[in-house]
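dumping these here so i dont lose them again. two proteins, back to back, each one seq then structure tokens. dont judge the mess
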Amino acid sequence: RFCVSSSMKFKVSRDLGAPQALVWTHFMDFARFETDMRRQGATLARVGDWTEATKDVEWRGAVTLGGKSNPLAAKITQLVAPRAYTIDSQIGGMVCHYEISLVSLSETVTRVALVLNLSAKTETARIFLMTLKLTRGLVLQRLEQMLVRQGSAAETEWQHRKGG
């Protein structure tokens, strides 16, 4: 039997041409995130039908990984507006720690950094994590695309507000 590390970390960042407060609003748009998840086949529901994202709000549902449906539980465990939030979740035997942080580089430029830590609690999750390690570049590309999508929306809104 061979030993495989049971954790993995992904980091991506992007500088956006919009003020921090506006970027924060876009990265706190969980309705958009939920819609993206559903498009990818996940079922997702807010626990308690909350309308405003605050510390300790939760989601429950299921997501398909490796062709198998897995239960999903997620919770905002830290929220420091307008600088950072953390979502901790469990998908089957995989524990996920997702951090978004924003740093104002100037009045109109904001750096967004995303860190995703994954760790496996079961043998099935370890095998899935091994697959992710083999496709690390693809995972990073998807995370970067997510930053680009949300960031572009903030930049476009900023351009419209400035009148250009």
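---- next one ----
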Amino acid sequence: MSPLRILVVDDLPENLAMLGELLEAEGYAVETAADGQEAVERALAGPPDLVIMDIGMPRLDGIEACRRIKSDLRTRLVPVVLVTALVQRENRLRGIAAGA
């Protein structure tokens, strides 16, 4: 059986490297994207099993990227986990509304 594919999305290369290494050490196949737009493109090109995505990113933030991933029939069932250093309740609610 092939390993689960996880798409990790963050605009900070050190975060991508750290999370990617941790997940690969557990046997997951990791793909990365540097912003929300790239995440949407990668997800639609070949849906991953899971997306772990930062909220605050250039070009397209994680909430809008999640909304776009969830609105496409090819990827609507892919779980999306949003991560952020922002602690405001509003961000959690926006993420849930987007489908995370």
